[in-house]
Specification:
- The protein has 374 residues and is of the alpha+beta class.
- The chain has seven helices and five strands.
- It has a five-stranded antiparallel beta sheet with strand order 4-3-2-1-5, with no helix packed on it.
- A hairpin with an 8-residue loop joins strand 2 and strand 3.
- Helix 1 crosses helix 5, helix 2 packs antiparallel against helix 5 and helix 5 packs antiparallel against helix 7.
- The longest helix has 74 residues.
- The termini are far apart.
Length: 374
C-alpha cells in the first residue's frame, strides 16, 4: 500500500513538473530544447501524410457509398467486428422496379420490352458496381485505415513520449541552472548541483534514446508512401475496369434499343434548323445514344420514301462516324467508325436522326454516332 502511494505521489510530481515547464515555455519564461531541422521536417511530413490520408479515405468512402446512413451502419459493423450485410445497389433496385413495371404495364408492348431490356442492363451495372466497391475497399480503403489505426497510432504514442522526455530534460536544465546560481551564493549547495547534474545526464540519455526511436518511425513514412502508391494503382485499375464494364453494358443496350426501327413522318412540328446554322465548333458525343422507341412515331403514319428524298440546296455538312452502327432496316444507313459521310436534316424529321449519304447509298443515321464537322 505504501509503495503504491509513493508511486502515485512520484507520478503526480513528475506530471506537475512537466506542466510547470510547459507553461513557462508558453510564456517565454523557460528555455526549450529545439529539435534539429531534419527532425522537424520529418514531423511535418508525417502530419501532412496523416491529414491527407484521412481526407482521401473519407472522400473515397463517400464515393463508394454516398448514403451517410449506410456509411455509419458499415462503420458500426466494422467496429463490432461483424460482417456487413449485403446491400442492394441503386442500379439493382432500379432494375427491379423496371422489371416489375414491365410485367404490370405489358411485357409485349414496345414500352414494356424496352423496360425489360433496360432493367437487364441496370442489373448488370449494379453487379459491376458491387464488384468495384468490394475491390476498392479491399485494395485501397483497408490499407489507408490500417495506417491510421496502426502505424500512425504508434507514431503518435512515441511522439508523446518524446515530448515528455523533452520536458523532463528542460526541467533538469532549469533545476541545474538554479542550483548553480544558489551555489554562487553559498557553498552549501554542492550536493544539489551534483544531484542536478546527475538528473540532467539521465534525462539527456532518455531523451536521445526516445528521439532516435521516434526518428526511425518518422523515416518509415517513406515506406508508407510506397505502399499507398501501390494501393492507388490498384484503385485506378479497379475503377478503370468498372467504367469499362459500364461502357460495354450501355453500348450493348443502345445497340439493342437501336434495333427498333425509326421512321420519317410528316408532322406539324417546326422544321429542324439547317445544319449550317449551328455553331461552327465541332460537336462530338462521348458515348452514342440511339433514339429509343419512345421517340418513334405512332403506328400507321406514313414513312418518307428515301428514293424521293433529295438533299437541300444548302445545309449539308460533313460528319465523321464515331462508332460502328448496324442498320436496323433498309431505311437506315450502316456506318463504319472513322469514315466521312454527308448529312443533312429534313423538315419534320426526328431531331435525333439525320439523312446520311455515302456515294450512291442513302439512309437514316443516329446523330449521336456522328461528329459534325464545321
Amino acid at each position: 500500500m505504501d509503495f503504491n502511494m509513493k508511486k502515485l505521489a512520484s507520478d503526480a510530481g513528475i506530471f506537475f513538473t512537466r506542466a510547470v515547464q510547459f507553461t513557462e515555455e508558453k510564456f517565454g519564461q523557460a528555455e526549450k530544447t529545439e529539435l534539429d531541422a531534419h527532425f522537424e521536417n520529418l514531423l511535418a511530413r508525417a502530419d501532412s501524410t496523416k491529414n491527407w490520408t484521412e481526407k482521401i479515405l473519407r472522400q473515397t468512402e463517400v464515393l463508394l457509398q454516398p448514403n451517410p446512413s449506410a456509411r455509419v451502419e458499415e462503420f458500426l459493423y466494422e467496429k463490432l467486428d461483424r460482417k456487413v450485410p449485403s446491400r442492394v445497389t441503386n442500379g439493382e433496385l432500379l432494375a427491379q422496379y423496371m422489371a416489375e413495371a414491365a410485367s404490370e404495364l405489358g411485357p409485349t408492348t414496345p414500352y414494356g420490352k424496352t423496360l425489360i431490356k433496360v432493367s437487364e442492363a441496370e442489373k448488370r451495372l449494379g453487379a459491376a458496381e458491387r464488384d468495384f466497391i468490394h475491390t476498392a475497399s479491399v485494395s485501397f480503403l483497408t490499407p489507408l485505415r490500417n495506417f491510421l489505426e496502426g502505424d500512425w497510432k504508434t507514431i503518435s504514442k512515441e511522439r508523446r513520449l518524446l515530448q515528455n522526455r523533452r520536458l523532463d530534460l528542460d526541467a533538469c536544465k532549469a533545476r541545474l541552472k538554479r542550483a548553480k546560481a544558489a551555489e554562487a551564493k553559498a557553498t552549501l549547495w554542492n550536493d544539489e548541483v551534483d544531484k542536478a547534474e546527475q538528473e540532467l545526464r539521465v534525462a539527456q540519455t532518455e531523451f536521445d534514446r526516445q528521439a532516435e526511436v521516434t526518428r526511425l518511425l518518422l523515416e518509415g513514412i517513406s515506406s508508407t508512401h510506397v505502399n499507398h502508391l501501390r494501393c492507388l494503382h490498384e484503385f485506378v485499375k479497379s475503377q478503370t475496369t468498372y467504367y469499362a464494364q459500364c461502357y460495354r453494358h450501355m453500348l450493348d443496350l443502345q445497340k439493342q434499343l437501336g434495333r427498333f426501327p425509326g421512321t420519317f413522318v410528316g408532322t406539324t412540328e417546326p422544321a429542324s434548323p439547317p445544319l449550317n446554322s449551328t455553331s461552327p465548333t465541332t460537336t462530338a458525343a462521348t458515348m452514342p445514344v440511339v433514339p429509343s422507341v419512345a421517340s418513334l412515331p405512332p403506328a400507321g403514319e406514313a414513312a418518307l420514301c428515301l428514293e424521293e428524298v433529295a438533299p437541300p440546296a444548302s445545309g449539308t455538312r460533313k460528319a465523321r462516324v464515331l462508332y460502328d452502327y448496324e442498320a436496323a432496316d433498309s431505311s437506315e444507313l450502316a456506318l463504319l467508325a472513322d469514315e466521312l459521310i454527308t448529312v443533312y436534316s429534313l423538315p419534320g424529321m426526328d431531331p435525333d436522326w439525320l439523312i446520311g449519304e455515302r456515294g450512291n447509298k442513302k439512309g437514316k443515321v443516329p446523330v449521336t454516332y456522328l461528329e459534325l464537322l464545321s
